[in-house]
Design a protein that fits this description.
Number of helices: 3
Strand content: 35-45%
Structural class: mainly beta
Helix content: under 10%
Number of strands: 28
Length: 310
Amino acid sequence: MGFHNELFPTKIGYGTRGGFSWGAIIHELDSGAEQRIQRKSIFRKVYDVSIGIRDIADLSTMRHFVAARRGAVHTFPYSDWQDYSTAADDRGTPSETDQNLGLGDAFNKDFQLSKRYGDVNYGVYWNIKLPVPGTVVAALDGTPTTAFTVGAETGIITFNSAPGSGVTVTAGCEFYVPVRFSNGVDELFQITAAEFNVGDVEELGMIEDLDPTPIDDEYDYGGAGEIAIPSGTSGLLGRMTTVTDDTGSIQLAAVANLPVGGPYACIYNADSGSVDVLDENGGSVGSVGTGAAKTLWLMLNGGNKAWLLV
């Protein structure tokens, strides 16, 4: 799976409907009392875009768009025309003080764009991963600033200098929703030809991708596979690995397109000397001693991805 930076066709998007899905589990007892379990910390946005198809040209557009996304495999940006802004009415021009992103600590430069839904006491915060380019505005203690950059596919604002301790960081923007096609579309994308030059699509659902971070196709998701490699190997990722030669080091894969978490690898040193483990830039991640095994994880350190060898 991966992220395709191809916006869902605007004309078709105007005629869609959608909303929130919570997926709560509700157990009702014989007495009528209920136990309700919240399975998600935040809602998931869902859409039906089939009603946006109005003519045969729209059908052709969707046939090609769905095929290019490989059905439900790849994520893409979608503009929800009822809710695309951090403004209070969900559609107005964003302002620098729309959303509170937190307080500065004179150290952290990175702040995640987000939008609060609901009241202050019980509202929920939805992370904005795909801000519309050129629409992000920000302020420090209410004073507008342009001294920042924005991650186009992360929604993370990085200030040139860390906001001071106690400084209120606010921001606003327009945004897209990262979505994929539903399982039904993936199983069968079906077009009905009602008559010549007339047709429709029975199902064309889309579901928000809660983590649109692309994963390389060659990623190994685990299992019992084990390979033996000499040190000096580069691009290590997703393997149960036995090191058989301690004359050099192991260099890990680039982290840009990898989701935080793990474990990504278990490294066992079967040789007589210590093996150094390096990141993609040659920096030291740690070492694995003789006869030792360590597990490799990917974590966030000050908003930046970093390998952890434990």
